[in-house]
Amino acid sequence: MSRLAVSIHGTGHIGLPQGAVWAQHGIDVVCYDTNESLIRELSRGTIRIKETGLDEIVKSSVEAGLLRFSSNLVDTVQNRRIHVLTVPTPRSEDGTADTQYVERAALGIAACASGSKDQGLRLYVIKSTVPVGTAQRVRSLLEEKGYGNFIVVSCPEFMPEGRAIQDLTKPSRIVVGVDHSSPITNRPLISCTKSTPRSCKITPKSSWSCPMKGPNWSNMAQTASLPPRLLS
User: Fold this and answer.
1) What is the DSSP string of 118-153?
2) Cβ-contact 6, 80 below 8 angstroms
3) What's the pLDDT tens digit per position in 200-217?
């Protein structure tokens, strides 16, 4: 049985901890970044991010051969079908999140993947902090460029800086959104762990504020906010 292989695009406060934790659990991870000096530092074991336990997990995962760092996009994408986008989304002048880096990352991955021998189904997982509708926008961009056989997934992160490792290993909840027309599901998927505290809730004010718009958005929000004893 082949090992699950994932590429992570962006090695900041979201991407690096996520990649390290996945590698610790046996997943083959390549963390990609356009910042070549940052990649050289990470490859030498120098970590700029201050997260409790991160240094040890990165070191052990690199030594196990399950985590490496690259600034070569073609090398990163080859033979990998799951691509996780954790690139920055800085604020625009009008205060909204600028998603150009998310869009560029997805298009760059698709371009490299199109030349790969492996033309199997690919997943683009958006974990960057993005506004409602970004997944649909990315999907449209990929389709406009003629790329096919892919699924765009929304998987928002809830990690406060300084607690990333704790939240990744014992998450209060995991929310995954897939378009209703996707071949892998016909409704949003909610997975909440038993460690979810009663005080932690997700309560969108309206369907327009919820990234999983559709007939089941209200049920999705209510399910995500249930206490752990009702999720088992």
Assistant:
1) ----EEEEE-S---TTHHHHHHHHHHHTT--SEEEE
2) yes
3) 443 333 333 344 445 455
pLDDT for 154-192, tens place per residue? 888 877 778 888 888 887 777 777 765 555 543 333 333
Superfamily of domain 5-169: NAD(P)-binding Rossmann-like Domain (3.40.50.720)
Average pLDDT over residues 120-142: 90
Domain ranges of the chain: 5-169
* Pairwise CA distance, residues 66 & 119, whole Å: 23
SS3 per residue for 167-209: HHHCCCCEEEEECCCCCCCCCCEEECCCCCCCCCCCCCCCHHH
> Which of 57 and 187 is assigned the larger pLDDT?
57
How far is Cα 20 from Cα 14, in angstroms, rounded to an integer?
A: 10
